[in-house]
C-alpha cells in the first residue's frame, strides 16, 4: 500500500471500488466450489441429458458464477457512507457470503448427489443379504464402497472448507470491535486458509480420474516434443 497515492486511493469513490473488489475476491473462491458442485450435480443426476456434458454448459456455469459474485457484492456499492470504513455489518456480510451460504449450498448439492448415487446403486446391484434361519428370511441392507467413498469425499470437502475459511473472516468481524487482535494472528490464519485451499485443489485433481489422465497425457506429449 505504500507504493500508492494514499489520498487518491482512499477517496470516497475509490474506496467503494476497493471494498467492492474485496468482497468479489473473498467470495469468488467459495462460490467457485458451488459452481463446481452444480456442474457435478447436473452431470450426474441428469446424465441422460447430453446438454450437461457439453462445453456450452461449462461456459454457462463459469459465466453464472461470476455474475452471481458481482451481484452479491452490490451492497458494497449501493450503501451510504462512510465510504472508506469497512463497518461491522460489511464484515459480517462478507463472512456470511464466504462461509455459511456456500457451505449450505454445497452440502445440499452433495447430499443430492449422494442420495442419487445410492438409489441408482440399489437399482443396479442387489442390496440385500439373505440369511436362512428357521424358515424365515432376514434382509439386511448394505452400503457399497462407492457410497462410502462419496460420503468420505463430501465430509472431507465440507470440513476443509469450513475449517479453512471461517477463522480469518471471523477474526475480521471480531476485529471491528475493540478486542485488540494482532496482525500476526490474522496472517497465520490467512496462510492456513491458503494451505487448506491448496489441499482441496489437490484432492479434486486426485479424485477426478479423467482430468488427471488428460493432464498426464498432455504432459507426456510436451515431454516427447522436447
From TrEMBL:
InterPro entries the UniProt entry points to: GPCR_Rhodpsn_7TM (IPR017452)
Transmembrane segments: 16-36, 57-78, 90-117, 154-172, 184-205
Domain G-protein coupled receptors family 1 profile stretches: 1-202
Organism domain of life: Eukaryota
Subcellular localization, as worded in the UniProt entry: Membrane
Keyword Transmembrane (UniProt): yes
UniProt keyword terms in alphabetical order: Membrane, Transmembrane, Transmembrane helix
GO cellular component terms listed in the entry, alphabetical order: membrane
Presence of keyword Transmembrane: yes
Protein name in UniProt: G-protein coupled receptors family 1 profile domain-containing protein
Lineage, broadest ranks: Eukaryota, Metazoa, Spiralia, Gnathifera, Rotifera
